[in-house]
Design brief:
Glutaredoxin; single chain; alpha/beta
Length: 102
């Protein structure tokens, strides 16, 4: 399944109320490192069925980025039961991201 697009409209339902852990990729179209990270996140979304994977465009959804103190992108955040359990800034390998998920 491809990565979902999280927005202020669907964030609470898709992320905070999710019964699965959620991997969020905070990114922007103008960010070169984000474009490097994107395909890895998509690959994980296609392969993992026990988690939910989505992306948040920080330019379109600045409120969510601000709420989670996203100062640099790409930032990856893992949320379980509505709480942040892991966070990483910068480009990461597929294995590093899988390790974040526990």
């Amino acid at each position: 399944m491809a990565a979902l697009k999280f927005t202020t409209d669907n964030f609470e339902e898709e992320v905070l109320k999710s019964d699965k852990p959620v991997l969020i990729d905070f990114w922007a179209t103008w960010c070169a490192p984000c474009r490097m990270q994107g395909p890895i996140v998509e690959e994980i979304a296609d392969e993992k069925t026990d988690i939910k994977v989505g992306k948040i465009d920080v330019d379109e959804n600045p409120q969510i980025a601000e709420k989670y103190n996203v100062m640099s992108i790409p930032t990856l955040i893992v949320i379980k039961n509505g709480e942040v359990v892991n966070q990483a800034v910068g480009v990461h390998s597929k294995q590093q991201i899988l390790d974040m998920l526990g």
